[in-house]
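Aim 2, interim progress: modelling of the 6-O-phosphono-beta-D-fructofuranose-bound target.
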Amino acid sequence: MADSKMARAHETAAWRKLQAHQVQLSSSDTRITDLFSRDPHRCSALTFDCGHIRADFSKHLATPETLSLLTELADAQSLPQAIADLFNGTLVNNTEQRPALHMALRGLDVVANPGIRTAVDAALVQMETLVSAVHTGAWQGYAGEAVRDVVNIGIGGSDLGPAMATRALRAYHQGSVRCHFVSNVDPAHLHSCLEMLRPETTLFVVASKSFTTLETMQNAEQARRWFIARADDRALAETRVHQHFVAVTANKEAALAFGIRDSQIFPMWDWVGGRFSLWSAIGLPIAFAVGMPAFRQLLAGAALVDQHFASAPLAANVPVLMGLLTIWYRNFWNAGSHAVLPYAQDLELLPGFLQQLEMESLGKSVCRDGETTELATGPVIWGSAGTNGQHSFHQLLHQGTDMIPADFIAVARPTAPDNLVQHQHLLANCFSQSRALMTGKSRQQVLDELHAEGVDIARAESLAAHKAVPGNRPSTTLLLDELNAFNLGSLIALYEHKVFVQSVLWNINAFDQWGVEIGKQLSKPAFAALTGDDAAAQSLDASSQALIRHCLHQAGSKE
Ligand code: F6P
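Predicted structure of the complex, ligand included:
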């Protein structure tokens, strides 16, 4: 990893050349469409296959010189060495003195630590045993009934990844159990989930690496209370909690103290970050939904991308190019946000998952050595499934004042082939949106159209500026052959490695998240104030005190 002696990215010759190059591109008003006209091979030169995902980077505001300068910058920041360090288990998470070895969960052999392989294999066998027992009905609840519903209680990385992947693989659900996800401490979340379930046929997975996270602990305790209170035979249920609760955690003692049996505690390790953990037993709900063979396919798809990332040259390395292009727009074009637009309803939870992956990893203002960074870092990640966005926020993508780079994610072969026409409409819209962002529509084109429609000249002139679309807005298209477990694994791993690339170029630690701690600390006196502790209330700012006073007044419990 970059140490303090290495020049920061913005101090390198490559950075200065990129700045000059950006000025030249913008002052000459270079258009992406011109780049296509100049080079008939542009599309093929900038399209790369990684497993069963085709990455088309040709709709970027990037010339061959741009890409060569970006890879020069990556070399200057020793990206190849940083990737090697990541894979060989170096303590890349320097503030917590930990490696980041999520790749080991999907097959990477960490030569320096062969025990990891043994532990990962054992956890997969443990998962296999539970999933098979639940699917066959061999696992029974306290009343001798098979499990029908699995409720995952977790938050952040212990929720978003499994929820997203379970949703994405809807077409492969085996149907023997239904998976539900409860994350929010808002009691409405757990309540709305449990109101349709029976304790006798429900299995809870308490997923928490730390087993101390407030939301998860509150929900788990409430779930246990519900299980006993709503059981047909409360007395018996109280003695059989262990038949309805399993845990995934690195804090075994806390899970045991909760009442979960040793054999039903699945491991987590400090070398796996929460947002990189869906490949571990945190992925149990995925396995419950689609079965262990498909779960292993998910791992295999990610492993393929790991190999690609570790071995492909920078200029043909898909996650490297994804990361470098984000640097290009963030640092040289001042793009503050990045849209993720899956044209697949089953990928509707992908933007939310990527928000944690990218923003918790890259939302940093200090370099690895603690110095304040002089560079803009992680952009805001946002988006939703197409085509819905076309009827809401795409207006801003097309005509707003900001350049917002976008990732379009599409699936070539439909999951439900019985309605090919709708799938063709979906693809047509996806490809047309990226095209529209690129080409735009000039004022003259608008005038010509209006004239052809017979609109009078004065009206046409007054409308033209409103109807013109600037275009020249960049996008990547990621085209999956099919949405299946293998390709989903590849897709997620592409983004994981993209995040790492950006962190290396920005010289920040992608694997810690200290910023989230302040909110956890400050919620304690606020909670105390809400429960009537006047001294705690006095310690708060005037605004918080007034808001809390109003809540207490509304609840009729104080004032
Ligand atoms: O508060 C942030 C965070 O620590 C995330 O990084 C993590 O994914 C989430 O909380 C849940 O943590 P845990 O799995 O320990 O409950």
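Residues 518-556 form one domain. The chain has a mean pLDDT of 96.
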